[in-house]
């Protein structure tokens, strides 16, 4: 499925990261941010308290 996310703030990035393994994700951004974020790779380290204790810490990277 194609998913369009408006913005690349905290929420937009988290949703993009969560949906990207199984969906094709696109971010809608202002024209002036496009050059800054195109193919930018970020790393993350967060705690997902919905998972079991052994799988709570999640690290990885996400490319816009």
Summarize the structure.
The chain is α+β, with helices and mostly antiparallel strands and 64 residues long. Helix content is 27%, strand content 38%. The protein has one domain (2-63).
Describe the structure.
By secondary structure, this protein is an alpha+beta fold. The protein has helices spanning 10-19, 31-37, and strands at residues 2-6, 24-28, 41-47, 57-63. A two-stranded parallel ribbon has the order 1-2. A two-stranded antiparallel sheet has the order 3-4. β1 (2-6), α1 and β2 (24-28) form a beta-alpha-beta unit. It starts with a strand and ends with a strand. The model has no long low-confidence stretch (mean pLDDT 88).
Instruction: Give the % helix.
Output: 25-40%
Q: What is the count of distinct domains?
A: 1
Strand content: 35-45%
Number of strands: 4
> SS-based structural class?
alpha+beta
Distance between the termini: 17 Å
CA-atom Rg in angstroms: 13 Å
Average pLDDT over all residues: 88
Question: Secondary-structure map with pairings?
Answer:
Layout: E1 2-6, H1 10-19, E2 24-28, H2 31-37, E3 41-47, E4 57-63
Parallel strand pairs: 1-2
Antiparallel strand pairs: 3-4
Give keywords.
64 residues; two-stranded antiparallel sheet; alpha+beta; 38% strand
């Amino acid at each position: 499925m194609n998913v369009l996310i408006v913005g690349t703030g905290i929420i937009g990035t988290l949703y993009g990261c969560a949906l990207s393994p199984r969906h094709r994700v696109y971010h809608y951004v202002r024209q002036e941010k496009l050059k800054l974020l195109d193919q930018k790779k970020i790393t993350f380290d967060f705690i997902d308290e919905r998972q079991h204790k052994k799988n709570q810490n999640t690290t990885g990277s996400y490319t816009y």
